Backbone:
């Protein structure tokens, strides 16, 4: 459907100085692909003081909705990058999901049942709005060099870097990178240039995806139907987006003809069944199948794969773009630390380890959801239908109904973490992003924990008497009870905090060590461990 | 160490068999298969132990 896709924003092509240079110019980091993932990586690196060249084969942001669901963890990252608040304002906030069988409500779920988080469980927002916000942010940053209509056509590996051949409207040029970040999507050119195998499971079921514009007052929640009367025998998903746009996703089965199914009359008829009596305009439609697969390795010497270029899942669960942005965040601080010589190359292998763990988790969830939605045989369908038949009556069956398990951050089983010596209860987990908490600044204004973190390594220390510890070099210190006040007690609850407790936070807001009391040596050892030194 | 109990546990094994047979009486093949599928989930959840479930599946697959 890309042929019918209009451009919503054009950032254009400009000749870069590198194209006129005598010798090939070398850059610390080149990111290929200016989609949400490449943009997030470039902005994160730039904010950490690393200059980035960002190449894209297009020079515009295309219409067509594609990704719509942005998860809490993604929004927290985007907030750190400086665009989170505007996106939440622009998007549709939701946290409720409902699952129906036929017309009967089987159950509903609340993805964020507690208060005191800055970011909601999810927003729905057309991908092009997110990309526009990120492009605007990238253009604000002097150390990002965004080059549109720069298509990579050649890649040579150097001993300590990579050399690219890039095609532009004014001919080809070459450029070198110490580190090359491949964020060039599911059909990654760089993956092809390295000849990497991208094997996995392809699912045969075809789905019709459509965005329609209509004035309707359906509630703002994710609605999923197994076997609704309006779409016989198959599943259906409906989601609200801004601008009175609704996403409809209809399962068509393995035998559907992709060409016939895209005929406007046929699409309309299917959608009328779903939406009657509401009148609607068709904004965008496509037929898709999907794969669950990943690269064996994400790091190939100095070429690092992130996002869809590294892994793909089904859309049910919103684990594609969200996990890509989480890849970008995981990589950015590590690359920045390497380039500033605060860490050794070993730190990069932790990117691979942590994000392969995440990719496998996402592929696992995605595959299980798909197995539930599209049983492979009559016998499997009978089992699935047994669960659906029991679900209205018994809780255990409702918990087996799988319409997509929605994206949450992975808890890294990581060499960067220092194992707990003392016991900690509460929501905070070693290897996971810190749970947010509502706090108060010293001047009495409200703040949240995550937005108060400073972006590097940081000790969050709980005040205990008047003695304030000294954090090691390269580690910031925030004292709860002094810099930030825990008036509601939710920090204490979520971190199982007691006076004197200390939490070591990574630059990506993940917890990597904690203690009941502050010991400068232990903190320094944990800090070095988290840098793999 | 197997966890699955295979020693007889019903005081009245014939009675247990009868209960299962009677549940199927007058059902078509399809209806019986649907009943079985539901029974499998209900009983599996009652057991609530994946190891036991795996052993039971292995035993069922081996006794053809």
Residues:
């Amino acid at each position: 459907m890309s042929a019918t896709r209009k451009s919503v924003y054009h950032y254009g092509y400009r000749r870069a100085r590198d194209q006129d240079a005598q010798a090939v110019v070398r850059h610390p980091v080149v990111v290929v692909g200016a989609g949400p993932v490449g943009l997030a990586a470039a902005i994160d690196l730039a904010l950490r003081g690393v200059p980035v060249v960002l190449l894209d084969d297009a020079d515009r942001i295309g219409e067509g909705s594609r990704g719509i669901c942005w998860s809490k963890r993604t929004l927290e990252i985007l907030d750190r990058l400086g665009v989170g608040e505007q996106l939440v304002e622009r998007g549709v906030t939701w946290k409720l999901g409902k699952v129906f069988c036929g017309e009967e409500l089987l159950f509903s779920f609340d993805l964020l049942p507690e208060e005191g988080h800055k970011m909601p469980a999810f927003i729905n927002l057309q991908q092009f709005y997110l990309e526009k916000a990120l492009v605007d942010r990238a253009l604000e940053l002097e150390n990002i060099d965004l080059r549109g209509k720069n298509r990579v056509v050649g890649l040579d590996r150097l001993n300590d870097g990579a050399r690219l051949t890039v095609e532009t409207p004014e001919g080809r040029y070459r450029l070198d990178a110490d580190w090359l970040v491949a964020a060039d999507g599911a059909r990654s050119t760089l993956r092809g240039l390295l000849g990497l195998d991208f094997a996995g499971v392809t699912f045969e079921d075809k789905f019709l995806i459509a965005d329609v514009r209509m004035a309707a007052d359906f509630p703002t929640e994710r609605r999923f139907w197994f076997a609704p009367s309006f779409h016989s025998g198959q599943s259906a998903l409906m989601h609200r987006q801004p601008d009175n746009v609704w996403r409809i996703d209809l399962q068509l089965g393995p035998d559907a003809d992709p060409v016939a199914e895209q005929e406007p009359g046929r699409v309309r008829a299917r959608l009328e069944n779903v939406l009657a009596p509401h009148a609607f305009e068709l904004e965008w439609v496509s037929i898709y199948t999907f794969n669950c697969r990943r690269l064996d390795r994400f790091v190939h010497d100095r070429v690092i794969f992130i996002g869809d270029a590294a892994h793909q899942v089904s859309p049910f669960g919103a684990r594609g773009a969200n996990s890509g942005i989480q890849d970008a965040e995981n990589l950015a601080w590590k690359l920045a630390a390497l380039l500033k010589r605060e860490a050794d190359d070993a730190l990069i292998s932790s990117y691979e380890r942590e994000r392969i763990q995440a990719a496998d988790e996402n592929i696992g969830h995605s595959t299980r959801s798909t197995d539930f939605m599209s049983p492979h045989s009559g016998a499997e369908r009978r089992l699935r239908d047994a669960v659906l038949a029991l679900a209205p009556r018994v809780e255990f069956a409702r918990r087996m109904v799988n319409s997509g398990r929605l994206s949450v951050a992975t808890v890294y089983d990581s060499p960067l973490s220092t194992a707990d010596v003392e016991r900690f209860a509460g929501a905070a987990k070693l290897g996971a992003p810190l749970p947010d908490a509502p706090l108060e600044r010293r001047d009495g204004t409200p703040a949240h924990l995550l937005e108060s973190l400073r972006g590097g390594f940081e000790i969050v220390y709980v005040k205990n008497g008047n003695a304030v510890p000294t954090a090691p070099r390269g580690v910031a210190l925030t004292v709860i009870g002094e810099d930030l006040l825990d008036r509601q007690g939710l920090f204490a609850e979520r971190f199982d905090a007691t006076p004197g407790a200390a939490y070591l936070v990574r630059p990506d807001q993940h917890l990597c060590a904690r203690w009941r009391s502050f010991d400068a040596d232990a903190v320094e050892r944990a800090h070095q461990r988290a840098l793999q030194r | 160490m197997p966890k699955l109990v295979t020693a007889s546990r019903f005081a009245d094994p014939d009675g247990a068999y009868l209960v299962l047979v009677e549940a199927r009486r007058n059902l078509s093949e399809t209806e019986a298969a649907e009943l079985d599928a539901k029974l499998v989930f209900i009983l599996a959840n009652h057991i609530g132990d994946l190891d036991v479930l795996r052993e039971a599946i292995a035993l069922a697959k081996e006794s053809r």
Q: What stands out?
A: Helices of chain B lie at 13-24, 29-47, 50-62.
